[in-house]
Write a structure and sequence with these properties.
5 strands, alpha/beta, 2 helices
């Protein structure tokens, strides 16, 4: 039996609030595999357009990462 792989992730804007691409690149460079979304390019996820959401999802997928959760405001 293959041992379970531990996924490592973080909230993307903890790396670079205004630059989502930089956040993903930094996270990938240290081996993170999962992301939690709160801000994308300095904008709260609840305020993103459909196009911005689609682009963010594509950027995550391009790096072989996955979106683990959303850190939405209450």
């Amino acid at each position: 039996m293959k041992p379970a792989r531990l996924s490592i992730g973080a909230i993307t804007d903890e790396f670079s609030p205004p630059d989502f691409t930089l956040s993903l690149d930094e996270m990938t460079s240290i081996g993170m595999t999962d992301v939690e979304l709160r801000l994308v390019n300095g904008k709260n996820i609840i305020d993103l357009t459909k196009e911005e959401i689609d682009r963010a999802k594509a950027q995550v997928a391009e790096r072989g990462m996955r979106i683990l959760s959303m850190a939405t405001p209450l």
